[in-house]
Write a structure and sequence with these properties.
single chain; mainly alpha
Length: 124
């Protein structure tokens, strides 16, 4: 039997939907709107949503903080992934270059050591 989050918390989806509609959308209403009256309406609705949610849930500022931290973490991970994808060919190219240089250095050093060992024998 597979136990998941849905089976142990059947109302979690409903609670997440309520938080999404009453908190997150009003938060974006405050951020996106340009006029101060519209921002104020969104802020008042956000405060009212925090009062409606009550003390059984996290305070609205904690939900906002959690959503901001989650978005920040996603952005950081996305930037790191993009950097890795952009730098991976460069790293592979540098490794290939180092491999070629080391192989050419080892072949040139082995040929110079064999020529230096052959030269004293030729003189005597």
């Amino acid at each position: 039997m597979k136990l998941g989050l849905k089976s142990c918390c059947p109302y979690m989806r409903v609670a997440a939907d309520v938080v999404n509609k009453s908190v997150c959308s009003k938060y974006y209403h405050v951020l996106v709107r340009q006029e101060s009256a519209e921002q104020r309406e969104g802020f008042d609705a956000l405060v009212k949503a925090g009062e409606v949610l009550g003390t059984n849930t996290l305070p609205s500022f904690m939900l906002l903080l959690l959503s901001l931290l989650l978005r920040l973490l996603c952005c950081i991970l996305l930037v790191l992934l993009l950097l890795l994808l952009l730098l991976l060919p460069l790293i592979l190219l540098l490794l290939l270059l180092l491999l070629l240089l080391s192989s050419s250095f080892s072949s040139s050093s082995s040929s110079s050591s064999s020529s230096s060992s052959a030269s004293p024998e030729g003189k005597s």
